[in-house]
Amino acid sequence: MLHSVSWASCLPLVVFCGLLSFNPAAKADTVALMDIVQAQCLSCHQIDRKRVGPPFREIAQRYAPGPAQETRAYLQRQIQQGSRGNWGAIPMPAQNRINAEQAQAIAAWLLSLANSSTKENS
């Protein structure tokens, strides 16, 4: 089932992709990463609004103050193995289709949203 996503909620994602487009190899990796995020994550998460799971920006703001390498590793595990009780009663299922490298890239992108101030108008 496809969900409509507003342009404003995707702005940080678009900016991130645009910045990486200056490096052709990074561009291909980024496109693949964003395809994964769209296929695997956006059914439960949005950038600035709660859906089933918490907004990406809220996750980023919670975890960004920690040590970067350890925080990325933690989020990578949470993405791959799932989690329970960190954001309320609804658990996040394990994302078995996402490998370690992809999960680490998603975690890095996610943390980049912590300093982004673009918010969707509610």
Automatic annotation (TrEMBL):
Keywords: Electron transport, Heme, Iron, Metal-binding, Signal, Transport. InterPro entries: Cyt_c-like_dom, Cyt_c-like_dom_sf, Cyt_c_ID. The keyword Plastid does not apply. The keyword Heme applies. Residues 28-114 form the Cytochrome c domain. Residues 1-28 form the signal peptide. It holds the Pfam family Cytochrom_C. It comes from the Bacteria. This is C-type cytochrome. It comes from Alcaligenes faecalis.
